[in-house]
Structure formats: structure tokens, C-alpha cells
Design brief:
- Helix content is 53%, strand content 11%.
- It is α/β, with parallel strands linked by helices.
- A seven-stranded mixed beta sheet has the order 1-2-3-4-7-9-12, sandwiched between helices.
- β1 and β2 form a beta hairpin.
- It is globular, with a radius of gyration of 22 Å.
- The two termini are 38 Å apart.
Length: 436
């Protein structure tokens, strides 16, 4: 049975919030009477879904009517700039029942993906409305372009030594080039939340350091048995982490897109008194060894130039995995055309570096033993006074911020639903059993 009450949309924010909280309490009582999600019968799953659906209707209507006011309250009239994680935590405390409280999310975090209640869907509903708001959305996106506290703490060391070693990324400044090397050698640079945090830190440092003029991203040498001693760009999302329930909507999927990937495009926002631009932007080159799968291929779509070894390939198998490939749907059609985008995203087509169609995604293809020299020549091509101004104008045309914001609003909701789709849970469950 669906559990719902009418939300007084036209009434006071507090009255409407109280109605949502009341409905959420009844749903919690219903769910508490059921077994854990993975142990539920078909009838019990249907009952849980009906309960969730009823209150989610109310949450969505509430946020459509009051989303901007909610955001203003959480940010003190947009005078504060919380990041995504801080924002949803504050919403859970200030508006009970609107999004999961911190303790509920912590309990969910300890479960495998298949045994979760799917509380992140409520975060998706909340962030969908916030990002859609023409007032709240741009403010939140700008907040995510600010440098992280971790990067600011590491900046003096990096400017002094030119080197920062992190678990997932090694950052070195040499000859004005910030060289970011993804070094998760055991898992082929498959991304998890640790790597997202390290990547954002590295991108911030490269942008903030005045000694850096150009950025370069490349995968390091692997210790994985199949690719030992070879460089690999990225195997995409870490499926082991997804099965374990450690790939979150806010901490991974949204932070990744609105954090370091957006900073690669738009730069890092700082309050340094520069009237002509509040953002520090720099040009970026990527070099692909072996393959760029999933999130690795998504990354390439924001770089100013991409080089690849002749034996490398790109793919976006997210549809096969059951999820949405980040902003790949937004960017791939613009880069390669709608037909290729559908073939890659919907049909799982691989694009090999030597294929004619690869020219839409890769600027230069060289033999593997020539890639080092080609990379050095490529970064020098972007080291020019007018490059930054021109890339800014190109990005404004190719990726207008308002269009990107609307895409990310829908992505927040749709990806939260996909994380808990029956097909996804079945696939990650089978992956987990194979790797036990």
C-alpha cells in the first residue's frame, strides 16, 4: 500500500516540510517491520517499493515548490558555499525526512549494494531540484569549483617541492607542466572514492600553482598480472567497490562530475581579486596507453588534446553495466556525432585508436614506443599566451554552463535510480560472487 499524504504546496515552507516528515516517519515504521532488503520476499519488496514511492512523490513535489527556499536556508541566503556532501548532510538535519540523516547513510554504507535500502534516491530527488533551480543550481556548481581544503593544505609543499605523492595519483611539476599520473597499479586505475578525492586534489594543485602552465594526465605502469609493466589509462569504475556498496551518488558519481572534471573544463574558482575572471584555468593534455574504459573515456572528452598509442581503444560500457556514463551522454554526441554516441553508449562499441572514427576523439595516434616523445611535443603546443582565452571561448560554445547544469540535474535523479535498479544489483551481485 502506498503511504502518502497531501503536501500543502501553497502553504508555508515549515508546514509543507512537516507533512513530508510525518509521511517519512510512517514509511520508516513500515520498513522497520520488514526484513533487510536482500532477504525480502517478492511481496515484501513490492510493499517496500510502494512505501518508498508514496513518500518520494511528496519529496519531489515539496522540492519543486520550495527547493530554492530550502537551499537558501541551508546556505544562509547563499552566503555560505557547502559542497555536495555538506549540503545533503545539512538538509537531513534541518528537514527531517527530506533526505536520509547522516546516521542512516552511515548504516547503509556498511552494506553491500544489493542489501541497501536505496536511500540515495532521496538525495537524487533533492539534488535534482537544487540543480534545476536557476538560483540554487549555479550557486552549488560554483561552490563545487572552489579548491578543496586538502588541496589548500598541500599547496605550500607542492609549490616548494613540485611533487605530491598520493595513494591514487602522483603529481609532479617539471618544465612548467603538471604531470598527473594515475597509479592504482593493482586495479588498472579503476576509480573509487579514494581516487576521485586524489584526482580533485591534484587538479586543484595544478591549477593553483603559478609555476604550472599546462596539465598532463596519463596512466602509470601496472602490477596487475595481465598488464604487468605496461601503462594503462583507466579501466573505469571500480566494480569491486560498486558491489561492496562503496560507490556513492554524492561522494563519487556527482562529486566526480561537478568536482575535478568540471575544474578541468572551467578552472578553479578563487577569491584573489582578479576582476577579469574569478577562475584559474589551464590547458590540459591526456595520453592514452592500452585503453580508456568507462570513466576513463568520459575523462578524455574534456581535454584540450588527446594522444593515444596505436594499440589503444576507448569504450563506454555503462549501459551494459546498467548505469549512466557520467556526462558522457552530454559530451560524446557533441564530439563524435549522435550516431557514434549511440553506438558507443547504447551498443557497447569500442573505438580503436587506428579507426577512422577515432579522429573525432583523439588528436594524434602514434606507435606505443613513440608516445613519450609525442606527449612532450604536445604539451609544448598548448604552452602559449592566448591558449587559455581561446579554450575558454571554445568551452562556452561547446559546453554552455546552463545546459550542463540542466543535464546534471537530471543525471542526479536518473543515476540514483540506476544504482538500485534490479539489473544493476543482479550484475554487481554476480561480480561479487565471482571474486569471493
Amino acid at each position: 500500500m502506498t503511504i502518502a499524504v497531501a503536501v500543502p504546496i501553497g502553504e508555508d515552507l515549515h508546514q509543507a516540510a512537516a507533512a513530508v516528515a510525518e509521511a517519512a516517519e510512517r514509511v520508516e515504521a513500515k520498513l522497520a517491520s520488514l526484513p533487510a532488503p536482500a532477504a525480502r520476499s517478492t511481496a515484501e519488496r513490492a510493499a517496500a517499493a510502494a512505501a518508498h514511492d508514496g513518500v518520494r512523490v511528496l519529496r519531489r513535489r515539496f522540492m519543486e515548490a520550495h527547493g530554492t527556499a530550502v537551499y537558501d536556508r541551508l546556505t544562509d541566503g547563499r552566503t555560505r558555499r557547502p559542497r555536495l556532501a555538506e549540503l545533503v548532510e545539512a538538509a537531513g538535519a534541518a528537514f527531517p525526512g527530506l533526505v536520509p540523516a547522516a546516521d542512516r547513510l552511515a548504516a547503509e554504507r556498511s552494506r553491500t549494494q544489493a542489501d541497501k535500502e536505496g536511500l540515495e534516491i532521496d538525495q537524487g530527488i533533492f539534488l535534482h531540484a537544487v540543480l534545476r533551480s536557476p538560483v540554487a543550481g549555479p550557486h552549488l556548481m560554483d561552490s563545487m569549483l572552489r579548491p578543496t581544503e586538502r588541496a589548500l593544505a598541500l599547496l605550500p609543499e607542492f609549490t616548494r617541492t613540485g611533487v605530491v605523492e598520493m595513494e591514487s595519483v602522483r603529481l609532479e611539476r617539471r618544465d612548467g607542466v603538471a604531470r598527473l599520473t594515475m597509479c592504482r597499479d593493482d586495479c588498472l586505475n579503476a576509480e573509487d572514492e579514494r581516487q576521485v578525492d586524489d584526482m580533485e586534489t591534484a587538479v586543484d594543485l595544478a591549477l593553483l600553482d603559478p609555476g604550472v602552465r599546462v596539465g598532463l594526465l596519463r596512466g602509470g605502469e601496472m602490477s596487475h598480472p595481465r598488464y604487468r609493466g605496461r601503462r594503462v589509462f583507466s579501466a573505469g569504475i571500480n566494480l569491486k567497490s560498486l558491489h561492496a556498496g562503496e560507490i556513492s551518488l554524492v561522494g563519487f558519481l556527482l562529486r566526480r562530475e561537478l568536482g575535478y572534471i568540471s575544474k578541468l573544463v572551467r578552472g578553479v574558482l578563487v577569491d584573489d581579486g582578479h576582476w577579469h575572471s574569478p577562475a584559474i584555468e589551464k590547458p590540459w593534455t591526456a595520453a592514452v596507453d592500452t585503453f580508456a574504459i568507462g570513466g576513463g573515456a568520459q575523462l578524455l572528452l574534456v581535454f584540450d588534446q588527446v594522444l593515444a598509442a596505436s594499440d589503444a581503444y576507448l569504450s563506454l560500457p555503462a549501459a551494459r553495466e546498467g548505469i549512466i556514463p557520467g556526462a558522457g551522454n552530454f559530451r560524446l554526441g557533441r564530439a563524435a556525432g549522435p550516431r557514434i554516441a549511440r553506438q558507443v553508449i547504447l551498443q557497447g562499441r569500442r573505438i580503436w585508436a587506428k579507426e577512422p572514427d577515432a579522429r573525432f576523439l583523439i588528436d594524434e595516434v602514434v606507435e606505443p614506443d613513440q608516445l613519450d616523445d609525442a606527449v612532450e611535443a604536445a604539451v609544448r603546443r598548448l604552452d602559449g599566451e592566448a591558449v587559455i582565452a581561446n579554450r575558454r571561448m571554445l568551452n562556452l560554445v561547446e559546453e554552455p554552463p546552463e545546459e550542463f547544469r540542466r543535464y546534471m540535474a537530471e543525471f542526479a535523479l536518473q543515476q540514483s535510480l540506476r544504482l538500485y535498479g534490479a539489473d544493476v544489483l543482479d550484475k554487481v551481485g554476480r561480480f561479487g560472487r565471482r571474486h569471493q
